[in-house]
Structures are given as C-alpha cells and as structure tokens.
Write a structure and sequence with these properties.
Elements: H1 4-7, H2 21-33, H3 36-69, H4 79-104, H5 116-141
Helix pairs in contact: 3-4, 3-5
Length: about 140
C-alpha cells in the first residue's frame, strides 16, 4: 500500500502527564524499599500469634487465677478434678494443633488478599474468648 504513512499513528514525544522509563523504575524501586509493604506482610502473622496465645492461655488462666486470688478458700482436688485437668490438657493440645493448622500454615497462594475463612474464624474465636472472659469476670470473680 502506497499511502501507509498517512493512516499510521506514531508517538514521537512525551506530554507533561507521561512518565519516562527511568521514572517508572525509580517508583517501583521506592515501593520495594518502603516499610509499609513489609509491615502489612507481618501484620497477619502478628495478629494470628496474639490471638493464638490469648486462646491458648485463657483456659490456663481460668485454672490458675483462683489459686492465686483465694488460696485459703479452695478445697482439695479429688480424683474427678484431676481427671478434668487431664481432659483440659488434651483439649489444649488439640486446640494448639488446630490453631497451627488454621493460622500458621503457609497459604497456597502468595497474592496479597484477605482470607475470608480465616478472618471470619478469627473474629468468631475472638468473640468467644471475650464472652468467656466476661462470664468469668462477672460470675466467678464478682461472686467471690
């Protein structure tokens, strides 16, 4: 075709709104060096560790607090009570394995996204722990 030059559009210069290749490289390097992205990466792990420790230490605190607050009023623990302590120990072991399986295994995808199942489960667990502490504080600690 003899008139191809008249129908072809060619970009020969830049406008005031465009970026050069060096600007794009500099911006991407600044984003890689920024602290904010690293903070977001470890925020999920930090919240999982905190929630996991609170969930794991709550039953132990429920067992230890009466011995610390009212050591003279407690009665001797019999065989049935010791069996309950063993039951609590096994339940804590299962809870520890479940917390690891849900929150600390590496995800299959490395994309930055919110895992809806983990977020809903963490919210539900946090609500349960808060309600247990509220019940323990109102019914047990206030009654003594």
């Amino acid at each position: 075709d003899d008139n191809w030059g008249e129908t072809t559009t060619a970009v020969t210069g830049t406008s005031e709104h465009s970026l050069s290749q060096e600007d794009i490289v500099r911006i991407s390097k600044d984003l890689d060096d920024s602290v904010g992205l690293d903070c977001k990466r470890y925020l999920n792990v930090a919240l999982s560790v905190i929630l996991g420790l609170v969930v794991f230490l709550t039953p132990l605190a429920f067992l230890i607090l009466p011995h610390l607050l009212w050591p003279d009023r407690l009665k001797a623990c019999g065989t049935a009570c010791e069996g309950l302590f063993i039951s609590v120990a096994f339940k804590l072991l299962i809870l520890l394995l479940a917390v690891w399986a849900l929150f600390f295994r590496p995800p299959r995808a490395g994309l930055p996204r919110i895992f809806v199942f983990r977020a809903l489960l963490a919210t539900l667990v946090l609500l349960f722990v808060l309600s247990y502490w509220l019940f323990y504080g109102v019914r047990i600690l206030d009654s003594q």
